[in-house]
Amino acid sequence: MTIHEVLQKYWGYSSFRPLQEDVINSVLEGRDTLTLMPTGGGKSICFQVPTLARPGICLVISPLIALMKDQVENLKAKGIKATAIFSGMGKREIDIALDNCIYGDVKFLYISPERLQNELVQERIKHMNISLFAIDEAHCISQWGYDFRPSYLKVKVLRSLHPEVPILALTATAVARVATDIQEKLEFDLQRSQVLKKSFFRENLAYMVLFEENKMQRLLRISKRTPGSGIVYVRSRRETKEIARFLIMNNIKGDYYHAGLTSLERSQKQDAWMKNKTDVIVATNAFGMGIDKPDVRWVVHLDIPEHLEAYFQEAGRAGRDGNKAYAVLLYNEADRLKLKSSFEQSFPSVQEIAQIYFQLGNYYQLAYGAGEGVVFDFNLGDFCRRFSLNVTKTIASLKFLEKDGWITVSENVFLPSRISFEIDATELYRFQVEHVNMDALIKVILRAYGPAFDHFVDIHEGDLARKLNTHPKHIVSLLQQMHDMNVLSYLKQKDNPQLQFLRPRSDTGHLEIDRHYIRERKLVAESQLHAIFNYLDDGQCRSRKLLAYFGEDAEADCLICDVCLLKNKGKRLEEVEANIYIELTHLLATSPLTLDELVAGIESGNEKIKLDFIRKLIDSGKIKMNNGKYYQKQ
């Protein structure tokens, strides 16, 4: 099939989005290609279409297990064979998946960078008919980027496994320095490589940055005045629940989302929002990756993001359908101080990192010299409570320990129970005859899930128990017995992050920590902090500022951000204040009002201008206060 026939058959589109066809043709010509495409630009199409248009497998590197699982399920729903290998899977399960890629008709293999470091996995990849390597979230390979992952540095091993196979690196956010670093780290053939970039300019997205003391009232006004789906981003899990409750109490269909929820809860909440049963989702940054909802009308940040890369991705989830949408960042002076404090806590001392490592060993009761390769379920909250640790410093310490090769920590992801029969159909029948107590269960499994002889299938112990009118614990017991008898492989459900010790436990005196790397990361983070603070300042078109940060020159102002709107109305500050004074006079004509009521009732100007002008009027004596309410002097 041609690439257009593939697009029509599997996605139902007759034409590609901007840049997609250029990227596809580039990799089909065998070129190493770096693609810079904003959130919602359709990056996955760029490697999925060319893979389906020719023989061979596409090996996709992705750091996000949840995103891998979603893409595999989406491909399977289209009738395309795909599989994934990531943390939490058993050795036998991985072995079967790799065999299917070598001998079967699998078209897409998704693999985490950590799994790629396994020599056995590398050896099996050598025997696959690979047509393309796709490196998703490619900025993770650069230590100058905002989300550096040490495991990504090993991705270049793919070049030695299949030297002639082109590499497609994809990212939504990369400044010039990071883009260069990506190409160097992946050993691009610079004679034949290409960098293809879609403009980051979003003509339909209005960026608003508002100084706001009463964020909740402002959020309420945005929710009520801007119909359609919305996302509210906050820093803490606690805030997601509190703000969702506030919205619901004010008759807005809201819900909350964070990584601490079970996978079933996350799936249900996300599904309700996608189907517009919920209007507003209040979430941490765990929400949004891989979600393609075109009709999001607004995204509000109630906290200052750590860097512009994250802000651009999260804000970019609004208005993907091309219609007018808003990205609103609400902040006050306390937020600046909190972000500075968070920055400092993100760079613990070498002694503090060593102490975290020591406490990890105690937490899992590992003896010195033991633990290499051992994987544990990891509960960050419980670990921090046990040793009275600061969460931000602990997370940072784990990342530095990961970079130096002491541990790896995977994201939490739901893996249902899985089984695969280890004997053939004839032997299984003989086993059923000899073990009558297990016969009924085996028959139900075969009817419900099919013959799982050369692959693992997901099972649900509760469903099996209902069909056999017994207790789930009894089902678990029978499955475990068959596992112990080598009749089947039984992998129990998981829903926790995984922590693996990569080396034997060391004493703190022999713990090697790269101090130079920590200093470099701090310099990068410091420049990102300055950039986000610069973005908050008024004076220049918001869109221009964002584009400049990503190395793109805007031909003109966007005309729709808060700065442009103020400028293009031709109003100087005095004119805005004059309008505020007229509105304020009308508001106070009938009865005194609280400060919140005053600010909410004034349409002209932003929050900061309103508050500053009201203070002027108070200082000049034109407005007086009595019992917490303001009135105009007659």
UniProtKB/TrEMBL annotation:
<keyword id="KW-0413">Isomerase</keyword>
<dbReference type="GO" id="GO:0004386">
    <property type="term" value="F:helicase activity"/>
</dbReference>
<protein>
    <recommendedName>
        <fullName>ATP-dependent DNA helicase RecQ</fullName>
        <ecNumber>5.6.2.4</ecNumber>
    </recommendedName>
</protein>
<dbReference type="InterPro" id="IPR032284">
    <property type="entry name" value="RecQ_Zn-bd"/>
</dbReference>
<dbReference type="InterPro" id="IPR027417">
    <property type="entry name" value="P-loop_NTPase"/>
</dbReference>
<dbReference type="InterPro" id="IPR014001">
    <property type="entry name" value="Helicase_ATP-bd"/>
</dbReference>
<dbReference type="InterPro" id="IPR036388">
    <property type="entry name" value="WH-like_DNA-bd_sf"/>
</dbReference>
<keyword id="KW-0547">Nucleotide-binding</keyword>
<dbReference type="Pfam" id="PF00270">
    <property type="entry name" value="DEAD"/>
</dbReference>
<dbReference type="InterPro" id="IPR011545">
    <property type="entry name" value="DEAD/DEAH_box_helicase_dom"/>
</dbReference>
<keyword id="KW-0347">Helicase</keyword>
<dbReference type="InterPro" id="IPR004589">
    <property type="entry name" value="DNA_helicase_ATP-dep_RecQ"/>
</dbReference>
<feature type="domain" description="Helicase C-terminal">
    <location>
        <begin position="214"/>
        <end position="364"/>
    </location>
</feature>
<feature type="domain" description="Helicase ATP-binding">
    <location>
        <begin position="24"/>
        <end position="192"/>
    </location>
</feature>
<keyword id="KW-0238">DNA-binding</keyword>
<keyword id="KW-0378">Hydrolase</keyword>
<keyword id="KW-0067">ATP-binding</keyword>
<comment type="similarity">
    <text>Belongs to the helicase family. RecQ subfamily.</text>
</comment>
<dbReference type="Pfam" id="PF16124">
    <property type="entry name" value="RecQ_Zn_bind"/>
</dbReference>
<keyword id="KW-0479">Metal-binding</keyword>
<dbReference type="InterPro" id="IPR001650">
    <property type="entry name" value="Helicase_C-like"/>
</dbReference>
<dbReference type="Pfam" id="PF00271">
    <property type="entry name" value="Helicase_C"/>
</dbReference>
